[in-house]
Amino acid sequence: VNRKFEVSLDLGMFNDRIMLTANLYRNRSSEQLVGIPLAPTAGFSVVQANFPAVVQNAGMEFDITAVNIPSGRNFEWVTSLNLTVAGNKLVAFPGIESSPWYDERYTVGEPLDIVKLYGYRGVDRMSGEYEFADINRDGRYNMDDRRYIRFVGPRAFGGLHNSLRFAGFQLDFLLQWVSQDGYNATHLFSRAPGMLSNQPDFVMNRWTGQGQDNQGQQRFTIGGTKAESAYANNLYYSTASVSDASFIRLKNLSLSYTLGRPIAQRLHVQELTAFVQGQNLLTITRHNGLDPENPGSTSLPPLRTLTVGIKLRI
Q1: Residue of 279 and 199 predicted with greater confidence
Q2: Cβ of 236: how many Cβ atoms within 10 Å?
Q3: Cα-to-chain-centroid distance, residue 137
Q4: pTM for the model
Q5: How far apart are alpha carbons 208 and 310 in whole angstroms?
Q6: Where are the alpha helices (DSSP H) in 60-210?
Q7: Which of 39, 47, 165, 203 could join 76 in a cystine, given CB atoms 3.0 to 4.6 angstroms apart?
Q8: How far apart are CA 241 and CA 304, in angstroms?
Q9: CA 257 – CA 287 distance, rounded (Å)
Q10: CA angle 257, 259, 260 (to 5 degrees)
């Protein structure tokens, strides 16, 4: 059953020099169709069935376009701004504690895009191995210790576009921004430092002797003891692997100049425009992974491109 609630507003002010579109919505879906894990002897990995879970998706969307300086003058300036705040959560899931696997993945009242992690405590001063919070104090790290919930996904995102024209010049630029937490480089390179695999440069800041202050990385190892490998794997599922991945990116920038009609006629052309365009020119972020737009991904960030050209119409 899907229940939808939505309120929208379209508003034009000052002879439509300012246009505003706002949208508020909340959708709730019940009886989720999900896959129930089966034993390997069944011959199939999952079977599709309805679970008594209620999922809510809610958010707000805003879009504003303002003609700061209208056309008809020597200078024109138009600004567009959009903002989206969206989220979801598991409203109800009766019997989640006894459900297969889902009690380890989801928590009622929390978003669906969460991860349950170990609490990272640094590197032991004496052994040089990673330490984590042992919640149940049983001396082992298991799912009962993964109590630290982190939301990995965008909380809000939007963009700002400006278009300015003066005489024959025109400047356009688009800023993209996202507020989010995501997986960082620790999540990508979680094998024990010293093992044969690509590693980020910060693994050089590792533990090298007993009594040494916490350096953030466990000791190097050639093959990796069972404990070292297990703790490195636990780091992959710990709070150390999730951090702020918010960013602001200059997505597009374009500058062009079009010859005036009198000059163009002297050159016996109808139109002559010279332009330079750039994409992904600048990114401001604290994220230490490969690309804040796709945190946790092993793919490289989008290429920075620069295009220069002339458009001629005879």
Answers
A1: 279
A2: 17
A3: 34
A4: 0.84
A5: 59
A6: 102-105, 185-188
A7: 165
A8: 27
A9: 37
A10: 125
